[in-house]
Amino acid sequence: MISVLHTLLTESSVSRAAKLLGQSQPAVSAALRRLRELTGDPLLVRSGSRMVLTSHALTLIEPASQALASISAILHPNDAFEPASSTRTFRIGSPDYLDVFFVPEIIDAFRRAAPHAKLEVKHLQMVDGGYESGLEAGLLDLVVGNWRKPPQHLHIQTLCEDDLVCLLRADHPIPKGKLTRDAYENAEHLSVTTYNTGPWGTIDTELARNDLTRTVTATLPYFGMAPYVVARSELLFTTTRALAAHYAQLLPLRVEPLPCSAAALTYYQLWHEGSHRSAALRWLRRLVKKVAQTALATRSGQQTKPEQKRGNSST
């Protein structure tokens, strides 16, 4: 009915409207009668030998055009996305251990590709209900992080790997290259509480798997604080190579391998089924993937893994 209304208004002729719509003239005349009843206005009136729009009909042209565009967007979604002209706001959830070397490169790449769009990066601990609820509710478009067992109900794409190392003061009493199992277990350690609220975090789980223990005597809420504490103490800090390598270039710190064969951590990006087919969010995922191949993989000294196959891992 909206299509008939719009065509009648733009053509000001029942016969021309019928031809454009591929309908019979009696069918369009019947539709016009119904529209007159619905709007309470004659819409088209005769003026000499032709039909003209009433003043009320003139006000309906734009709303009818907008309604048709909205219906078309629903029935025929546009698969194209132009980042250069987009004004959309995108939201990424990220743990703060990625803040110093990954997030800045994401923002830089995003701003260059989509200068008119907005990007909000949210700490995973700051999302009401947790990141899984945030993705489901549309409060987050994408989440980046590492999980030993990523949630099975979300779409997932592997970004790269990073191994665990130990960060300590450059002039620490433990000599360079002498971080043995005994030295590690006898030292005092610094730890950071994360969005993983279970009693065993990723690092402790991996240490336990290698029958290695640590005595944590200080904890912090944010990863960005840890290197500065380590630089002024004899605490050891077990973390990822990418983060450790970054701060070892800025502070009087050094990186030592763990005295065990700890498995590498895998970075992923996760998203919800509700955003899986969005052209805009497919673009965002491609951008994050590309940045991860340089910002994460290069800093960690690792090669990117082949993309994980789970059936729901396509971009």
TrEMBL record:
Chain residue ranges for the region called Disordered: 295-315
Keyword Iron: no
Keywords: DNA-binding, Transcription, Transcription regulation
PROSITE patterns: HTH_LYSR
Listed Polar residues bias regions: 295-305
Coiled-coil segments on the chain, per record: none
Compositional bias per record (Basic and acidic residues), positions renumbered to this chain: 306-315
InterPro entries recorded: LysR-type_TF, LysR_HTH_N, LysR_subst-bd, WH-like_DNA-bd_sf, WH_DNA-bd_sf
Domain called HTH lysR-type: residue spans: 1-54
Similarity section: Belongs to the LysR transcriptional regulatory family.
Protein's name according to its UniProt entry: LysR family transcriptional regulator
